[in-house]
């Protein structure tokens, strides 16, 4: 995480201090956020870890338990925070977030409006994108959810970049104080078409809006409303496909526990070696790749639109 001091200057603090938030990394699918306390001990399957031993170590350090087990202490970047935060609502993941930040054209210094806050996954990445001189104003109609998000932004050092408000944007619209000031607006609402007129008033000329919706019917209705004051309307569905690359054996026809791809058909292998002196060694290791079984499917549709310039 890019920690920010009261003067809104980015501080690259690389050593862990008492009270810092760290991501304790056991493996790629087992991480947790821990607030460092000198008198505390972390217990997990690898043993007991004295947190006093963590203080003064740089982020990324490998620390040992009383049993010789180990974990890594990582800085709470937005990417890692998305994986460990409390899911108060459905969240956006890295693939969707990266597209949102790119197509909303968010750069340092931007003023961004968001509704609703939810678990704060996207908000965290938006804050890093606008740092050090920009600001994210995020709204949620649920008071307790907004309070929890506010606490999270304090923990991750983003409170000077994010302001959390309690407001029903669908019913009331965005506050008038932001009229014509926003560079970008993001909507994650069950009925985004109700908030689009207000969002249009908040945007600067040529500003960009994005609406996230899980159902295509929501996209269709929102697009109808967008056509009156927006242009360049586009909808995306991001499907991320990860691959596992590992060493396997070419003569294994049955998938092993690592997901071996098996060998090529005999005739195809013979043709591939024709005209060469290559010798195929049965059982020799080779690098194989296959789609990961953990690939995520549909999360939602991202609809982008640009406010029409006045002629």
Automatic annotation (TrEMBL):
The organism's place on the tree of life at top rank: Eukaryota
InterPro entries found in the cross-reference section: SAM-dependent_MTases_sf (IPR029063), TRM61_C (IPR049470), tRNA_MeTrfase_Gcd14 (IPR014816)
Enzyme Commission code(s) on record: 2.1.1.220
Alphabetical list of SUPFAM superfamilies matching this protein: S-adenosyl-L-methionine-dependent methyltransferases (SSF53335)
GO biological process, one term: tRNA methylation
A GO-annotated cellular component: nucleus
Record's keyword terms, sorted: Methyltransferase, Nucleus, S-adenosyl-L-methionine, Transferase, tRNA processing
Residue ranges, annotated region (Disordered): 254-295
Pfam families referenced in this protein's UniProt entry, alphabetically: GCD14
Gene Ontology terms for molecular function: tRNA (adenine(58)-N1)-methyltransferase activity
Gene3D superfamilies cross-referenced by the UniProt entry: 3.10.330.20, Vaccinia Virus protein VP39
UniProt feature coiled coil, ranges: none
Residues in tRNA (adenine(58)-N(1))-methyltransferase catalytic subunit TRM61 C-terminal domain copies: 69-306
Top EC class for this record: transferase
PANTHER family referenced in this protein's UniProt entry, alphabetically: TRNA (ADENINE(58)-N(1))-METHYLTRANSFERASE, TRNA (ADENINE(58)-N(1))-METHYLTRANSFERASE CATALYTIC SUBUNIT TRMT61A
Protein name from the UniProt record: tRNA (adenine(58)-N(1))-methyltransferase
Native source species: Liquidambar formosana
Source species taxonomy: Eukaryota, Viridiplantae, Streptophyta, Embryophyta, Tracheophyta
